[in-house]
Fold these 3 entries.
Entry 1:
Amino acid sequence: MTSILFTGFAPFGGETINPSWEAVRALDGALLPGGARIAARCLPCEFGAALTALRTAIAETRPAVVICVGQAGGRAELSLERIAINVDDARIADNAGRQPIDEAVVAGGPAAYFSTLPIKAMAAALRELGIPAAISQTAGTFVCNHVFYGLMHAASTEDRIGTIEAAGFIHIPYLPMQAALHAGAPSMALEVVVAGLRALAEVALNVKRDIRTAGGATH
Ligand code: PCA
């Protein structure tokens, strides 16, 4: 059976929940039209350990598609990340107290990897459903970018089973209960995020060639 792996993260930075884990765990075990099944795993918000947990999850689930999801407080849309860069530069300590500065995610690895998800088709599908979506040109330099880079590196160099057809990263906004504690911050209801992620899984399975539509930024 075709498997799709979604990962979310543990809470970090003083939050008591992480919407990424809340959303992906709601999809654990879900069957998609066509028979693919979703598996969900929680990654620690720690440099290094998050990638170890991701590798274990990939080995256990042998997914065709891997979509890692993380919280991006302050963003208003589901953000389809375009690019992972080979740098860890932490503004705050991770959950293990580590704060790497200007270290490579993978020493000697390429500067960057592009998402292999059809992110333009995904953005279009979300907007069709009435869900705010954006292409994002940076996943930051904290644990989310670390996992995104490690995922793309693994998919291109270590996927010895050869199951991974597409992989990438999605940032999601705060939940309303978090935004209530951050004056002025945008939020998205959990059921909207869950519906959006489910739709993205279907697009990732069915769209083999992305559509050509503008998703760039001027700054
Ligand atoms: N967001 C952080 C790490 C974990 C998460 O959910 C980030 O954007 O790097």
Note: The chain has a mean pLDDT of 96.
Entry 2:
Amino acid sequence: MSENNFNYSVEQFADLQILRYKVHGFDSLTLNQKKLIYYLSEAALNGRDILFDQNGKYNLKIRRLLEAVYVHYDGDRSDSEFQAFEVYLKRVWFSSGIHHHYSTDKFIPGFSVDFLRDAVMSLDKSQLPLSDGETVVGLCNELFPVIFDPDVMPKRVNQADGEDLLLTSASNYYEGVTQQEAEDFYAAMKSPDDETPVMYGMNSRLEKKDGKLTEVVWKIDGEYCNAISKIVYWLEKAMNLAENEQQKEVIRLLIEFYRTGDLKIFDDYSICWLKDTESRIDFVNGFIESYGDPLGMKASWESIVNFKDLKATYRTEVLSSNAQWFEDYSPVSSQFKKSEVKGVSAKVITAAILAGDLYPASAIGINLPNSNWIRSVHGSKSVTIGNLTDAYNKAAKGNGFRDEFVYSEHEKGLLDKYADITGDLHTDLHECLGHGSGKLLPGVDPDALKAYGATIEEARADLFGLYYIPDAKMVELGLIPDSEAYKAEYYSYMMNGLMTQLVRIEPGCCIEESHMRNRQLISAWALEHGADEEVVKLIVKDGKTYVVINDYEKLRSLFGRLLAEIQRIKSEGDYEAARELVEKYAVKVNPKLHSEVLERYKALNLAPYKGFVNPVYSAVTDEHKNIIDVKIDYNEGYTEQMLRYSRDYSNL
Ligand code: ZN
């Protein structure tokens, strides 16, 4: 596909749209670099089953059952029950499990128990994922309640204040353990004097066996061994092609971590990885994101392989080389600032493969490592993923969204002119400066904010970006064209936070995901605190609600005030204040506005969530099996890709 007829949109079903991203510049890489990407992408794809299992202990078996039916079904495929079944399977692939990837609610099948039972019964036993000695009836009895009964494992990650978050969450990180037991178990490991604490519990499931708590560690010769050995096999090949000694050491340490499960080695690896800023090619492969654990400790598996976008990286280099200036002039109280902001490296990358918790739905920016002490002593590495943002923007052109929700031609003009640029810049500020700014006061437990920590952290990073986008420094550094541009980001941020992000929430539900909570927290707080001066208003015109910003400069000072308070909460570990802010502004939804937004959005027939299919890499070999080229192809469809992955990378 050439640039002109490249199809960014693949297909749409349920509330999901599948896109395709282009790997700009792949063909201009050297053969060595292409081979390195190829090996690392195999290491990425081989971890796929880990996330399915982490997201729920029946997910892999359910996926295999559904795929068997899908592949071997010999009834009428145009029948409405089969069609609903197909949508369900596509959703299971998308979520790496039976719960919605974002809301974490279990999705309700649109087909009947009888349909599935008949379809399963008609298959040959050899086609079904039967355990030793298990009958087909036994299989159905085991899995059907999990699929159909709304009361069985209803939520993957429960965050409801006051409930036992572990017993009520379906994710597979704890087995038979209460929240109190888990909190006590890990509190006993932590010492307040330890200045370099490892990420306790990150790479294991906590189980209760014979009344005793045990960690089942994910490593070679441990849990997930089959997948991890394959990952290591490809990492070893990649190590031989490393671009430099630093990168080689990164891969060596990662392999050692996968072999031992030793969290101290993971810290060594993380430090080594963040210091590797010279390599063109880079990757993440491991247990990284903690959103799937209600306690925020257990890390889901993910991988991304990427290479530096040299041109766009200039933008983030300008930001990071001025990091100290931004820290010094932020509205945060000086006791919470870093006197020396270290190692904020930043780059724009081109994703080459997405896997685990980054596939098919992906973040557009990544800031790692997550360890607090490493971040404050060694800094962090920040990336924005340019080609994914580009695919979102290209696929959204002319879809009617702005016409429906933006107040007037004036705001539409601002967005058309500036929003692509300011959106990217806000992401850069969030990732390169926001997360890396500020410090904890001595002795403050990094987990002091518990379940509210993730929302507060995202709010901190977002506010840092919002506060600085209008700054004269931005124009001076050549990052935005003029002093009006920031208004595009302010408008789209407030519109999203107050209204349009609600399209992702089911009627009657509240907001749970931490990035969404953060956005509503900031915008609802600013709406309320600017109400006397009518800084921001919700206006109803012809029965439709719109966001109107009357005073952009005052809005900036409100963002500054909130940034100072959020940083204080983080720095002091003020749990009560975090709880109050989040519960008051970030969680509850105005039901009337919510249903209006849903109705208007529905009329546009757009999908609120997006994800990507990966390109296909194939190695071209000579007669001695040496790789002489790596080809990239964009023609694989969604179902085709999922079935191929299930066939070729089914390691658990
Ligand atoms: Zn963030």
Note: The CA atoms of residues 291 and 333 lie 29 Å apart.
Entry 3:
Amino acid sequence: MALIVQKYGGSSVGTIDRIRNVARRLIEVKKEGNKIMAVISAMSGVTDKLIGLAHEVMDNPPERELDMLLATGEQQSIALLCMAITDMGYKAMSFTGQQAGVCTYGSHTRGRIHSIEPKRVLEALDNDYIVVCAGFQGVTVDGTIHTLGRGGSDLSAIAMAAAVRADLCQIFTDVDGVYTCDPRVVKDARKISVLSYEEMLEMASSGSKVMQARSVEFAKKFGVVFEVRNSMNNNPGTIVQEETSAMESLAVRGVSIERNQARVTVSGITAPVAYTAIILSALSDAEINVDMIVANTAHDGQARQSFTMNMSDLGAAQAALKKVLPQLGESARLETEAGLAKLSVVGVGMRSHTGVAATVFQSLADAGIATGMIATSEIRISTTVEAGDIEQAARVVHSAFHLDQVNA
Ligand code: ADP
Ligand code: ASP
Ligand code: MG
């Protein structure tokens, strides 16, 4: 008998038919003699709808109340799934984050999991129930509801799998696994059979939203091997695990794209020291996540610094930087550019293969696509392009590394 944790995302429980499909799948696992726990998301579109309602009421809804509201999406779907299972003749019990013992800390709408005390869930499993837990939510020690950031049910599932020491953790979604690029953008993208935590993390944090980046970080930290699969078929998916030497044979294993990027440049900086600290502290105090950073000093001695960030942070970044401009010198000024996107190539093989950057930039140049800011890590190269060029850029780079042909 194995203990299996399966996560089903919003599209997998998006209609009553799909909820019944998940119920049948869980019952199959149970009938094979296993203990089965599902962690599920709100029905697709529900979380967005709730956010929309909140903003209809007011511009900046208090985050505590947003968490209270958003957590209801998952509460609906767990109850409906348990009803579907019961209707098929099996015992099922739903658990909110609090009932499942998920203890959180940190900020509202992006809470972090501190610990999980899964006593009630384990009892229900021992008593032969199919257990259905709400993803995306937990409570602080004093009982305040937190949600875990968009896509946070992935994190709930991985953390739950670690807490109950599951034998298997499967993340079910609407595609067959993790592909060499988003299959909605690159039609000949291929499913990758095994990925390392590092590669999955770099892909997720550079736009491949098939997994929430924080959930992958958690899996890596606690050694939770997981598989991404399709809830509508039985095809094998993508296993995400520790790196193996075989993964290094290819330089690039995936291409990620991230839309809605903006650039802010502070130029004419004459403040002699610590200007980077002044700028970054101002942005960090405003809780803005800066992505790429480029700094240089012009021949006239004036410095300039550019950053990229999500479009949604642009207004707040401008406001935060305007306040510190006087500290950066009399000629310091702010320029912004919206309408950018980011393309990244990822692969652990990059450590041992040369010429990866040359291939990326040559293929983009051959296609007449202009690139902007560049950032790299040991296993990733990213560049900004105009938003309108991003899909073509993804296809060009994908084919330059023959990702449509090789068995990744
Ligand atoms: P869920 O509702 O199951 O959490 P998501 O919408 O969060 O599903 O994630 C699945 C989607 O991720 C796919 O439909 C696909 O369009 C997108 N996606 C982006 N990059 C990739 C990739 N590299 N491989 C697979 N899917 C990807
Ligand atoms: N329902 C939440 C969201 O839409 C969590 C999730 O789907 O993972 O972000
Ligand atoms: Mg998701």
Note: Residues 9, 151, 154 surround magnesium ion (ligand 3) (CB under 6 Å).
